[in-house]
Specification:
Strand content: 15-25%
Shape: elongated
Order of helices and strands: EEHEEEHHEHHHHE
Strand order of the largest sheet: 2-1-5-4-3
CATH topology of the largest domain: Beta-Lactamase
Number of strands: 7
Number of domains: 2
Oligomer: single chain
Number of helices: 7
CATH class of the largest domain: Alpha Beta
Radius of gyration: 21 Å
Helix content: 40-55%
Length: 212
């Protein structure tokens, strides 16, 4: 799930808004250190480009580790970074999609408030965006994926014997218990995550599993 969402001013590096869905555990310090290092590097790149007179376009950064995924999106019109820290299991494309939606919602609702902030440092008006973030991220759960097996094991075995699925397809399907993410399945079977995702897509097309 998504643990935290941050809005950070790209001009000053000051946090405009922070929303926590779930507290990080014992790895919190390492994750946050990596997160803020990535933020600072992104802001440095933006400022360097602006100093050289270059146009700064949208910028996406994804930093993955065994325990977490950090996503950073620079919204050039507002000059704000929209960022999230989530489980490594979460679907990165879904995170990217929802963070972009949050950025667009922020610009639509708070364009004038941003101007006020940059002249007065008043940022309390941004708090109204928290409800939007909660809705758009479904309380932080929007990028979670837990495949569910739709057929019983003996039917799955018949499908395997008919040659409709391969042995690896069968092994992946058995792990679709609604509790295992694609990443967890890849670790259980010692396979690449990308390979597991391809298998899951095939199984879903065959109506053998459903990805929540």
């Amino acid at each position: 799930m998504i643990y935290k969402v941050y809005l950070i001013d790209g001009d000053s590096s000051i946090s405009l808004l922070e929303l926590t869905f779930k507290e990080l555990k014992k790895i919190q310090d390492d994750i946050l250190t990596g997160f803020f290092n990535a933020i600072n590097k992104t802001i440095d790149l933006v400022h360097e480009a602006m100093t050289k007179g270059r146009r700064v376009n949208e910028m996406n950064r994804v930093l993955g580790s065994e325990d977490s995924t950090i996503f950073i999106y620079y919204h050039p019109i507002s000059r704000v970074l929209f960022c999230s820290i989530s489980d490594a299991d979460d679907n990165t494309e879904k995170i990217k999609e929802v963070i972009h939606k949050i950025a667009n919602r922020f610009w639509k609702k708070h364009k004038s408030d941003l101007k006020v902030y940059r002249s007065t440092t008043e940022k309390s008006r941004f708090n109204t965006l928290k409800a939007d973030i909660e809705n758009l991220t479904i309380g932080g759960h929007v990028a979670e994926e837990f495949p569910k097996l739709l057929v019983v094991k003996n039917v799955l075995e018949k499908v395997l014997s008919m040659g409709m699925i391969s042995d690896i397809d069968f092994q992946v399907a058995i792990q679709c218990t609604c509790k295992n993410s694609p990443l967890k399945i890849s670790r259980i079977l010692n396979k690449k995550r990308s390979e597991i995702i391809d298998v899951l897509k095939k199984l879903e097309q065959l109506d053998i599993i459903k990805i929540k």
